[in-house]
Amino acid sequence: MEYRRLGKSGLQVSALSFGSWVTFGNQVDDTIARECMVAAYDAGVNFFDNAEGYAGGKSETVMGAILKKLGWRRSTFLVSSKVFWGGDKPNEVGLSRKHVIEACHAALKRLQVDYLDLYFCHRPDPDTPIEETVRAMHTLVEQGKVLYWGTSEWSAGQIREAHAVAREWRLTPPTMEQPQYNLLCRDRVEREYASLYTDFGLGTTIWSPLASGLLTGKYNNGIPSDSRVNTPGMGWLKEMFQQAQSDGRLDKVRALVPIAADLGVSLPALGVAWCLKNPRVSTVILGASRVSQLKENLRALEVVPKLTDEIMARIDAAVA
Ligand code: NDP
């Protein structure tokens, strides 16, 4: 495994990490969840990603029980949560001081840990002043309940504002952002955030490196029955995938197939390796509904050296 610094912080995060969205407490049973975590940890993965919104909190409960049972030394892994979607009452959503603090306490209980290594604002909240959220995060950091805080899918302007507030009031600024980044979704990480890496040393923990599975190639001829899109509540993703047939995204995936074949690697490993190739990426969060997928994707580390300038140009042309 390769380890990268989380932005300019001193924290070492495995270049490949593992997340539980859709899967834990929902699509897969607890045995598969545990087997995936063990396979990841054994391969050197040290970061496990979660959120209060995943399976209505069940994902954190499942991960917490697994962590407790496995008994890994606390210093050998990082665990995260994200705050935003905590319930259907007014103060169970968003980034108010009340919800940020209460969601942290609830996540600590479900995950059965004393502190969160990483804690993300899962989305920007237009109804809460950024200063209120930065102050709440600062409180949690001062209390030792959160080590590093960050954002997810905030605009560059919103991240800049959080830094400005932190600088003005001597509060803890965000360390990292969790954006989507993959061969079909590049703009934010490559262009919008470009100045944030140099100005603030922003770290990135990127999500959906395979565009929820689209970049594996398994949707090239229709939707397979064992896909995540058939999980209850995922109808919106099914619609998005159906759209991918007509909006050209599947043509791009098909154009990547011969490149992977020429390199003698699988399409999923190529897609993940392409994300790793970007030095602005601190960690690529993998998702998997079975251990075999995870093991295949972990091989991406071996594919990175094969991504020469010539291959990168072919990839750019395929997805242009
Ligand atoms: P991916 O884009 O890598 O999609 C993972 C899914 O693709 C798997 O669960 C599986 O789905 C399919 N797949 C993966 N590898 C293979 C393979 N080798 N062969 C065939 N199918 C494969 O990542 P996710 O969308 O799961 O995102 C990763 C993590 O990022 C999440 O767990 C979460 O922690 C985080 N995330 C954060 C978000 C945010 O807003 N901050 C949003 C979304 C995710 P299937 O069961 O269909 O086979």
Rg from C-alpha positions?
Answer: 19 Å
Structure ligands = NADPH dihydro-nicotinamide-adenine-dinucleotide phosphate
**CATH fold topology:** TIM Barrel
| Number of structurally distinct domains | 1
Main beta-sheet strand count, sense and barrel state: 8 strands, parallel, barrel
How much helical structure, as a percent, in the residues? 40-55%
Arrangement of strands in the largest sheet: 3-4-5-6-7-8-9-10
Using the 3D structure, state the CATH architecture.
Alpha-Beta Barrel
Shape: globular
List the helices and strands and how they pair.
Blueprint: E1 3-5, E2 12-14, E3 16-19, H1 23-27, H2 30-42, E4 47-49, H3 58-70, E5 78-83, H4 97-111, E6 116-121, H5 130-142, E7 146-151, H6 156-169, E8 176-177, H7 187-192, H8 194-200, E9 203-206, H9 235-246, H10 249-263, H11 267-277, E10 283-286, H12 291-298, H13 300-303, H14 309-319
Parallel strand pairs: 3-4, 3-10, 4-5, 5-6, 6-7, 7-8, 8-9, 9-10
Antiparallel strand pairs: 1-2
Helix pairs in contact: 2-12, 3-4, 4-5, 5-6, 10-14
Features:
single chain, eight-stranded parallel beta barrel, 13% strand, TIM Barrel, 10 strands, two-stranded antiparallel ribbon, alpha/beta, binds NADPH dihydro-nicotinamide-adenine-dinucleotide phosphate
Please give a quick description of this structure.
46% of the residues lie in helices and 13% in strands. It has 320 residues and is an alpha/beta fold.
What does this 3D model show about the protein?
- The protein is globular and about 55 Å long.
- The protein has an eight-stranded parallel β-barrel with strand order 3-4-5-6-7-8-9-10, surrounded by four helices. It has a two-stranded antiparallel ribbon with strand order 1-2.
- Helix 6 links the parallel strand 7 (146-151) and strand 8 (176-177).
- Helix 4 runs parallel beside helix 5 (130-142) and helix 5 crosses helix 6.
- The chain has one domain: NADP-dependent oxidoreductase domain (TIM Barrel, Alpha-Beta Barrel).
- The chain has helices at 23-27, 30-42, 58-70, 97-111, 130-142, 156-169, 187-192, 194-200, 235-246, 249-263, 267-277, 291-298, 300-303, 309-319; strands at residues 3-5, 12-14, 16-19, 47-49, 78-83, 116-121, 146-151, 176-177, 203-206, 283-286.
- With 320 residues, the chain is of the alpha/beta class.
- Bound molecules: NADPH dihydro-nicotinamide-adenine-dinucleotide phosphate.
- NADPH dihydro-nicotinamide-adenine-dinucleotide phosphate binds next to strand 10 and helix 12.
